[in-house]
UniProtKB/TrEMBL annotation:
PANTHER family: RIBOSOMAL RNA LARGE SUBUNIT METHYLTRANSFERASE M, RIBOSOMAL RNA METHYLTRANSFERASE FTSJ DOMAIN-CONTAINING PROTEIN. Monomer. It catalyses: cytidine(2498) in 23S rRNA + S-adenosyl-L-methionine = 2'-O-methylcytidine(2498) in 23S rRNA + S-adenosyl-L-homocysteine + H(+). Belongs to the class I-like SAM-binding methyltransferase superfamily. RNA methyltransferase RlmE family. RlmM subfamily. Residues 1-70 form the RlmM ferredoxin-like domain. Residues 188-281 form the Ribosomal RNA methyltransferase FtsJ domain. The gene is rlmM. Catalyzes the 2'-O-methylation at nucleotide C2498 in 23S rRNA. One of its GO terms (molecular function) is S-adenosylmethionine-dependent methyltransferase activity. GO terms for cellular component: cytoplasm. This is Ribosomal RNA large subunit methyltransferase M.
């Protein structure tokens, strides 16, 4: 048994499968996917060396539908097994040379209701498992950030998958899920989407520079203000464009100017907008075109926006939307740019995209 495990939102397995199939083919690897509806992960079967190559060369950050991925080493049956830590050790020992000494261990589950009930067990089990793996010298005595990460994923209480990933191509969040608390005064739940997007798309070491107090932002389709709330929280001055009403609490901050205009026609008077965000529910191609035109005309430096997903063939559609945006920026722009897209934990039937011109190095 060898291949790659990719975790995704339940219901998006076929999109995650289509994506890994496509990306692996680009790397010259021809494996096949196995998945089941709503199991929240996909197995991509290929040779062990090919799986390792994917784990090294295919950047997780470039995958839209996969939240986390690891090289699959073994599947373990645990029904009736008393010493589960020893069973995991036994399953890992024949594969030790693939990861040598692991720097840390992650015990997790796919994001399904059934498996999520095991989260508490996973946290508890990681204590004896760590000890067992350390004793056997499979795991370092203290976390080593540069060594591979060992994964033990409980699909259910009787079945676990083991594997490893490389630290430089991994998410810091268990299961690839960034859990955020809904702020008490947040005007809508979608506030969490923009909070997550800022954290996923802007690396921590660049945040102070790229997200600063006093920056100017435009929020298209802003009402009632969940996204504006995140910009205000980061001490930005916001032009909130929407015919609908904005939350009073936001207007009282003095940082928000509510503009009742069509978001497709509005443009800022001055070209000093640092962040454009857009959550208008519209045809993805139309939103993509609007966002690229803001960048191309120098109306903003960075943009974060949602693209609504179709009911079917979501990967193929996403690939096309992103290709259109890329082509526009390549054809009409004169600078290198960055495009990132992710089906975030707080997204449902949409993905979130980030665009920016890259600064001169
Ligand atoms: C999903 S809601 C936005 C929610 C908001 N991001 C939040 O967190 O509270 C979409 C908003 O887009 C607005 N909208 C749709 N089409 C628009 C347009 N052409 N111009 C301006 N606003 C538009 C709607 O009025 C609606 O308030």
């Amino acid at each position: 048994m060898s291949g790659i495990i990719l975790l995704c939102r339940a219901g998006f397995e076929s999109d995650c499968a289509a994506e890994i199939q496509d990306k692996a083919t680009e790397l010259g690897i021809y494996g096949y996917c196995q998945t089941q509806p709503d199991q929240a992960y996909v197995t991509y079967h290929c040779q062990a060396e090919e799986a390792d190559h994917i784990a090294r060369k295919l950047a997780l950050k470039e995958l839209v539908f996969a939240r986390e991925m690891f090289v699959l080493l073994s599947a373990i049956k645990l029904a009736g097994v008393e010493d589960r830590a020893s069973a995991v050790l036994e399953a890992l020992l024949p594969h030790q040379e693939s990861f040598a000494l692991a720097g840390d261990l992650r015990v997790e589950t796919p994001d399904t209701n059934e498996a999520n009930q095991l989260s508490k067990f996973c946290r508890k089990f990681s204590v004896p498992l760590r000890q067992t793996l350390r004793k056997a010298e499979l795991l370092s005595n203290k976390p080593l950030a540069k060594r591979p990460l060992l994964h033990v994923m409980f699909v259910n209480s009787a079945h676990a998958l083991t594997g490893y990933s490389y630290s430089y191509n991994q998410t810091p969040h268990v299961g690839g899920i960034l859990r955020l608390k809904m702020p008490k005064d947040g005007p809508s739940r979608s506030t969490l989407k923009l909070d997550e997007a800022f954290q996923v798309f802007v690396p921590e070491h660049e945040r102070d520079k790229r997200i600063q107090a006093g920056m100017k932002a435009v929020d298209l389709g802003a009402a009632p203000g969940g996204w504006t709330y995140q910009l205000v929280r980061r001490d930005m001055m916001v032009q909130a464009v929407d015919n609908g009403p904005m939350a009073d609490s936001l207007m009282e901050t003095g940082q928000v100017q509510h503009i009742k205009e069509d978001g497709f026609k509005f443009r800022p008077k001055r070209k000093n907008i640092n962040w454009l965000v857009c959550d208008m529910v519209e045809k993805p191609a139309r939103v993509g075109e609007l966002m690229t035109s803001w960048l191309l005309e120098g109306d903003c430096q960075e943009a974060i926006f949602n693209l609504k997903l179709p009911m079917r063939q979501r990967y193929a559609a996403v690939k096309e939307y992103l290709a259109q945006i890329t082509e526009q920026l390549q054809t009409h722009g004169t600078k290198p740019f960055e495009i990132q897209a992710k089906h975030l934990y707080h997204d449902r039937e949409e993905i979130t995209v980030h665009l920016r011109w890259l600064p001169k190095s």
